[in-house]
Design brief:
- The chain is mostly helical.
- It has nine helices and three strands; from the N terminus they run αβββαααααααα.
- The chain starts with a helix and ends in an 8-residue tail after the last helix.
Amino acid sequence: MASASNSNSTTSTAKSISISSSDPSRKYGTQDPNCRTNISCNFCGKMCKGGVYRLKQHLIGGFKNVVDCTKCPAHVRDEMLTYMQQKQMSKVENVMNGRIGGNFVDLDDEINEEEEELQANSKPKKPRVKGLMNMHFNSIRSPKQQTMNEICKKELRKKACKEISRWFLDAGLPYNAVNYASFFKAMEAVAQFGPGFKPPSMYELRVPLLKEEVKEVDTLVDEHRKEWAVKGCSILSDG
């Protein structure tokens, strides 16, 4: 009787954990008591091996990692799609607020909550390093994933452009300054650095950085002077 009561309490505990989750997809799936990452769809009965993240993909449809649910109602599909988009947007806010570090952030990457719970009880794993191959294959994902990524990128660019516009107004810079090639190079360098970039101080601009620019110009002029000694020098005027 004691063992039976223990098993019943364990089952009720597992059910309470499943119900207490804030993920809305859980109400549309039934969790396997023997394997927490296996959840069957309540509409078509398909077993999704990958937790609630795979279940959401199954309900939304259009993902190559899981079979689409043919019996999922339209309002449920819209609910799951909205939830995933909001979760992506929260990641964007974390990036903009500087709460996510690293040189490269994959906005398409979403770790399954069930897998996080299981990893917490297992041995710690080394963080996955994202390289050029990851960036390449992330660019050829399904249309729905690309759409969510584009939404996040659009919001990031909107915030960045707004801050640049305020800086132009505060400094009284002419708007045609954005047409300079050096402006594009500066923006690209800041983007490659990532979150947490510390801009140069007034002293750095006036002393060390200015000296480096003068040195580079002198080096360029010296190369021309060597050609003048051989080919001569012509002075041109446009009138």
